[in-house]
Amino acid sequence: MFSADIITLFPELFPGPLGASVLGRGMNDGLWSLHATQLRDFATDRHRTVDDTPSGGGAGMVLRPDILAQAIDTVAPPDDLRPRILMSPRGKPLTQARAHELATGPGAVIVCGRFEGVDQRVIEARQLEEVSIGDYVLAGGEVAAMVLLEAVVRLIPGVLGAPDSRDEESFENGLLEYPQYTRPQTFEGRDIPAVLTSGDHGRIAKWRHQQSLELTQARRPDLLK
Ligand code: SAM
C-alpha cells in the first residue's frame, strides 16, 4: 500500500482536501494511507524551537538540520525505501511522469518547509529530493505536498473509477487534452461539434487528436519538442 508521511509544523492541515471525494474513499478503502508528524515534537528545548537565524545574515528563519534529521529518521529509518521529498521552489518541477513513478512505489516521506527554508546540510545528508509545484513561492510546503499527493494518489490503481479515461488526459501522451462537451446540445448559441454526436468513433478519435495537437501547439509548444 502507498504510505505517505508528512513532516510539518501544521499537521492539523492534513488530510484536508486529500480526505475528500475519490482520494478520501481510497484512503478509507485501504488503498493508501497518510500520517502527518509535528516537527516541533523533535525540538529539544522547552520552547519547542525548530528554526534559527540564517548564517551569514539576512531576513527570516531557517529550519534546523539536527531537528529535521531526527524527525526524518524517526518517521523513516534508513531501511525505509520510500523517497524522501522536500517541497521546494528550487526543486525539479513536478511532472505527470514523476507522479506515475511515485504512484507505483511504496509511498513517500514529504518534508514541508517554512520560513526561509531548510538548512542545506540536512538536504544533502538525508538525500532529500527537492520537488517544486511551479515557478512561484508559497508560504509553506503543506499545500505543495497536497498537490503532489493528489497528483500521485489518483494514479494508484483502484482510486479512480475509470482508469481508461486517464490515458487521454493532459500530459499522459505528451499532449494537452482535447475540449470536452456535454448536454445541452446548444448552450448560449454554441453547439456541440457535430462530429462528437456522429457516432463515428474513428472520426471522433481523429478529431480529438487533432484538437489536442492544436491546443498543445498553441499553449504548450514545449511539450511537443
Ligand atoms: N526562501 C525560499 C526560496 O526563495 O526558494 C522560499 C521559502 S518558502 C517561503 C517556504 C517553504 O514553502 C519552502 O521551504 C517550501 O517547502 C514551500 N514552497 C514554497 N513555494 C514552493 C513551490 N513552488 N513548490 C514547492 N514548495 C514550495
Automatic annotation (TrEMBL):
The keyword Magnesium does not apply. Residues 5-225 form the tRNA methyltransferase TRMD/TRM10-type domain. Its main location: cytoplasm. It catalyses: guanosine(37) in tRNA + S-adenosyl-L-methionine = N(1)-methylguanosine(37) in tRNA + S-adenosyl-L-homocysteine + H(+). It comes from the Bacteria. NCBIfam families: PRK00026.1, trmD. The lineage of its organism: Bacteria, Pseudomonadati, Pseudomonadota, Alphaproteobacteria, Hyphomicrobiales. GO terms for biological process: tRNA N1-guanine methylation. CDD domains: TrmD-like (cd18080). Specifically methylates guanosine-37 in various tRNAs. This is tRNA (guanine-N(1)-)-methyltransferase. Belongs to the RNA methyltransferase TrmD family. One of its GO terms (molecular function) is tRNA (guanine(37)-N1)-methyltransferase activity. GO terms for cellular component: cytosol.
